[in-house]
């Protein structure tokens, strides 16, 4: 099951693809990681899907990543008389803690943390940005606003406060329950929602430790102001363009996407581009040309993975969506311009032995026309450092840990393989040659470049490079 591309594909699991037959089809079509969205479904649903995916691991003999996506805090207005009310532009509208039913003049907002964060002039967005209010007078339990953009507002619609940092944790009680359940199952990645500052990631790290990789979803403008610190504390990052597009002007999102990808590539952290990538394929067997270009742009920018949400979770064409994304990535990566961009955007190695060895491996592989670079890593750090280099040859990542192999399913260009633990570098070279041949990366007479760190099992200790001949 060797992929013919470097960028990976994340598929969201939902009602349209919850059976073993459908999930197997999505994997065969190109899905590398499956996303379990804990905003929907119950624990029993997710366990059933988790068990099926782990069964596919064994059936196909390939490590498959599983991403648990936490819901995060959801700020919503309360209920209205008759279920809805019409807000008229230019009129006053009050939000408060009073649980009474709302009308065209006021609505309950059961979130005291929101009122504590407001100031006169703050913009409030309702119903995914369709309605806009501006705060005038406010206090600890109310906000008097003016309706800037009106429209119909119904029960429990969402509220966004784009310009304020809210006094709320990114992990709710539900999130902590979901997190503990997912970690007990053995998920490979945990996606954090509603991250506003580096402290939110640090809080999650205390709970998760090293039991799963932490993928920070960048969906709040406040988080962009602390981008470098958040990237440093994360194991991976997701450009969550849905909420970013609500809280920021649409014209700002493309530039921020590129900025996030560049920061992650420089730090050597996997980065995922998500939301509405092939949205029309929810109901159509083919995407728009603009959507195809959107996916291609993320690949040209060097994203490690692109993600499908509704397209696979509830769409009418889940398999076709995966196949289309696979074809777009494949075509982009064979464009001569793509390789030129990867070389131009290449970052200088840090002044460490590990970075020097990995950078040298990329150059040596190119110079001798090696068939592949083979890495050995217990934690995945050596392999991720190699992926950061964006070499022109495939990366074969050997690891003795199944959890590491599955986590590396997200990383650019990495074909991960679980092997028995090794005790010497010569044994590792022998295993590397055998794996490169068995997995179809190298034929007899071809060369491979091998990197590892001694002593084995020491994170970040990449310190050996060897050229080996496949015999």
The DSSP helix count reads 17
Structural class: alpha/beta
Counting structural domains, the number is 3
What's the CATH H-level homologous superfamily of the largest domain?
Phosphoenolpyruvate-binding domains
Q: List the strand order in the largest sheet.
A: 1-2-3-12-13-14-15-16
At CATH level 2, the architecture of the largest domain is: Alpha-Beta Barrel
* Regions with little confidence, pLDDT below 50 for 5+ residues: none
- CATH topology (fold) name of the largest domain: TIM Barrel
Number of strands: 21
The biggest beta sheet is recorded as:
8 strands, parallel, barrel
Average pLDDT works out at: 94
Write the layout of secondary structure elements.
Layout: E1 8-13, H1 20-29, E2 33-37, H2 43-60, E3 65-69, E4 84-87, E5 92-96, E6 106-108, H3 112-116, E7 123-126, E8 131-138, E9 142-149, E10 151-154, E11 159-160, H4 173-185, E12 189-192, H5 198-208, E13 213-218, H6 221-224, H7 227-233, E14 236-240, H8 241-247, H9 253-267, E15 271-274, H10 289-300, E16 305-308, H11 310-313, H12 318-333, H13 336-344, H14 353-367, E17 372-376, H15 381-388, E18 395-399, H16 402-407, E19 414-418, H17 425-438, E20 447-453, E21 462-469
Parallel strand pairs: 1-2, 1-16, 2-3, 3-12, 5-6, 12-13, 13-14, 14-15, 15-16, 17-18, 17-20, 18-19
Antiparallel strand pairs: 4-10, 5-9, 7-8, 7-11, 8-9, 20-21
Helix pairs in contact: 1-12, 5-7, 7-9, 10-12
């Amino acid at each position: 099951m060797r992929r013919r591309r470097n960028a990976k594909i994340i598929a969201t699991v939902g009602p349209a693809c919850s059976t073993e037959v459908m999930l197997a089809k999505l994997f065969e079509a190109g899905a590398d990681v499956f996303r379990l969205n804990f905003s929907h479904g119950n624990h029993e649903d997710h366990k059933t899907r988790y068990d099926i995916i782990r069964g596919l691991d064994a059936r196909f003999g390939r490590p498959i990543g599983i991403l648990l996506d936490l819901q995060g805090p959801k700020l919503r207005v309360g209920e209205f008389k008759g279920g809805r009310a019409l807000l008229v532009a230019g009129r006053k509208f009050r939000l408060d803690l009073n649980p009474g039913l709302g009308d065209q003049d006021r609505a309950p907002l059961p979130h005291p943390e929101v009122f504590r964060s407001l100031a006169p002039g703050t913009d409030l967005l309702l119903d995914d940005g369709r309605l806009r209010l501006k705060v005038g007078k406010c206090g600890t339990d109310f906000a008097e606003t003016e309706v800037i953009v009106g429209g119909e507002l119904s029960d429990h619609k969402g509220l966004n406060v784009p310009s304020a940092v809210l006094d709320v944790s990114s992990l709710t009680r539900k999130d902590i329950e979901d997190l503990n359940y997912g970690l007990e199952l053995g998920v490979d990645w945990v996606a954090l929602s509603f991250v506003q500052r580096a402290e939110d990631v640090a809080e999650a790290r205390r709970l998760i430790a090293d039991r799963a990789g932490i993928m920070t979803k960048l969906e709040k403008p406040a988080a962009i102001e602390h981008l470098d610190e958040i990237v440093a504390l994360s194991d991976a990052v997701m450009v969550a363009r849905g909420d970013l597009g609500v809280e920021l002007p649409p014209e700002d999102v493309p530039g921020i996407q590129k900025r996030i990808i560049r920061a992650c590539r420089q730090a050597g952290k996997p980065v995922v581009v998500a939301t509405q990538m092939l949205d029309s394929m929810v109901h159509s067997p083919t995407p728009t040309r603009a959507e195809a270009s959107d996916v291609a742009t993320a690949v040209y920018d060097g994203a490690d993975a692109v993600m499908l949400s509704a397209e696979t979770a509830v769409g009418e064409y889940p398999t076709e969506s995966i196949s289309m994304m696979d074809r777009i990535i494949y075509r982009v990566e064979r464009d001569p311009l793509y390789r030129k961009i990867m070389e131009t955007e290449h970052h200088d190695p840090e002044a460490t032995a590990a970075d020097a060895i990995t950078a040298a491996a990329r150059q040596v592989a190119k110079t001798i026309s090696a068939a592949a670079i083979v890495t050995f890593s217990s934690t995945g750090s050596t392999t991720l450092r190699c992926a950061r280099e964006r070499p022109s040859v495939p990366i074969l990542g050997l690891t003795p840990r199944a959890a590491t192999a599955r986590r590396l399913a997200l990383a650019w260009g990495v074909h991960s393989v679980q092997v028995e633990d090794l005790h010497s570098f010569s044994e590792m070279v022998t295993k590397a040659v055998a794996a490169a041949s068995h997995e179809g990366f190298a034929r007899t007479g071809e060369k491979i470049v091998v990197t590892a760190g001694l002593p084995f099992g020491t994170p970040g200790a990449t310190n050996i490079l060897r050229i080996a001949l496949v015999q």
